[in-house]
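Aggregate trends can hide what the representation actually does to any particular protein. For completeness, the protein is quoted in full, as a sequence line and a line of structure tokens.
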Amino acid sequence: MKIFISINLPQEIKNKLYEIPKIIGKGSAKIRFVPKKNYHCTMKFLGETTEEKLNEVIKKLSKINFKSFKIKIYGMGVFPDYNSIKIIWIGIQDTKELLYLYNAVDSETLNFTNSYMKYNPHITIGRVITVKSKNSLIKKINEIKFAPMEFEVKDFCLCESITTKDGVNYKTLKRFSLI
């Protein structure tokens, strides 16, 4: 099973963010938009894991004792850059509390992955398949403006990524409450 650790978003924020793919729409690129139910902020991707390792990860993550905190969602961007657009994302303010939680998650799970990724908090809303007009796509992304949204992070989750013929689904395996 493929697993990752994430912060889930409140439904009202998912609903507001879901308007963005409608604005980007079609025409300038073929984009596979993420279903609204799958919107989340990945803390760390652990990849393929056995049942035995899954239980170890749960034990390690259960040790994290952290206070709830607020984060802001604002702005948009792309990965890896505007010359080669692969992912369209919504930004998350990189607060010290979010960084502390990320560092706690990272240190507890260091032995479960051999890859390193710089933490860049975001919500993926679309994966670009092909670009017909890069300038048009960039213009659409840059024109989208929305008021920053804030919510309280009360927990984080260990999730499984399940690939089906209809796309990817995420299943919450364990929720870890913040105090």
Remarks:
- The chain has one domain: 2-177.
- The helical segments are 11-17, 19-24, 51-62, 96-108, 134-143.
